[in-house]
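Reminder: ligand-aware prediction takes two inputs, not one.
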Amino acid sequence: MHDQSLGELRAGLDRKDYSSVELTRHFLGRIHHGQRLNAFISVTEDLALEQARQADARIAGNDSEFLTGIPIAHKDLFCTLGVRTTCGSRILDNFISPYDATVVRKLKSGGMVMLGKTNMDEFAMGSSNENSYYGHVKNPWDEKRVPGGSSGGSAAAVSARLAPVATATDTGGSIRQPAALCGLTGIKPSYGRVSRYGMVAFASSLDQGGVLARSAADAALVLQAMSGFDRRDSTSLDRAVPDYPGCIEASIRGKVIGLPKEFFGQGADPAVMEAVEQAVRIFESMGAKTTGVELPNSEAGIPCYYVLAPAEASSNLARFDGVRYGHRTEQYEDLMDMYERTRAEGFGEEVKRRIMIGTYVLSSGYYDAYYVKAQKLRRMIADDFQRAFEKCDFIAGPTTPGTAFVIGEKSDDPVSMYLNDIFTNSANLAGLPAISVPAGLDHGGLPIGLHLIGRYLDEATILNAAHQFQQRTDWHRKTPEGFE
Ligand code: GLN
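Here is what comes back for the chain with glutamine:
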């Protein structure tokens, strides 16, 4: 059962090959078997079985939707009614959410069964899932290596077949990087497509929810169900959501792929570049054309992102003060002392680093030199994409500079960790949809990700291209050894 696509699971449930309760029990057993990966912060076994029973009743009453009865894991950044929501942080270790995030509510009302909450970098800050208060996550392909971050728990869970699909979030690459490093398909939609209501905020102008799945077809189904306008999120877009599953079957003949010279220069491992070039040839064999494009400001992406994201984070994280919710220090002298001790105890090292950088770049005297300058660069980066999309339908390149690295290898060097985002964070700065698709294995047998960036609001084209690529290749079907 754990190797079936969402479409096959739907058919299996409808044919009564198994019930949702049986399916849910099967995945709960897999989670138990894969415990050493540390992919989950909470496993909500009783609730899952209760939801599965309700789903079975809906199926029996002919009241099911496509995803009814299919299990899912949620990144522990989405608020879940009555269930602990930690965001990977000690400061929220005891936080039980009084409401569901819109994404969770939508998938729940569609009848999906929540298996649990997945591990993640604290407040989604990281590229390797080594920054979680709950310990690092292991990559199922090689347990000495990182799964990528910050949605590393969701990625490890789907890759090891502990869950058929998972939600995730992406501020600078956190869906696409773990997708690349764990051999999955991960899509970050356009900014505003998926409601941020009930997503614990990191950098509000960049954060976006999305999906980690085994194929573009699966991702299209879940993205469809979680997208759409939400009046509770002031940045949510009031636009019709296209029929993603219906869009992916079209031929990509005549589509133009933009190849930015900035993504094809130095910077990525030869094995990664080889796989990307091979993927482009496969697209060409399907009738797509290529053209060179320029993204002249892409070099500024990392410095720009690492000014803006910490600036927004320093403001968003001010709410964790030991008064409203979450951890509070046990002994303190006065109110100031309580705030300071609570935050000193509650936040990890990387989160503190971001708060300090963010406070610094927003302080008077430095605001113009850093924050305002970064905002201007952000506009220039977005304009570059706009010009590039006059010549092409989507852009292709590598998702990450390398494959999964060894746990601990980069954790003492924040700048080298930040450089993992080099190909991903410009899509967040420009608000564009982007997807990572498995496109090969390196010499050590580790997965490689192909990155496709689409026009604003055009998730359909990149899902279509990814699905067509998956009709011609088998990379997305590969399973890490021991989890078959
Ligand atoms: N690696 C980036 C960071 O640490 C992106 C994280 C994310 O997308 N949530 O900020």
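The mean pLDDT is 97. The pocket of glutamine is lined by residues 124-127, 150, 170-174, 202, 309, 421 (CB under 6 Å). We will return to this case in the review session.
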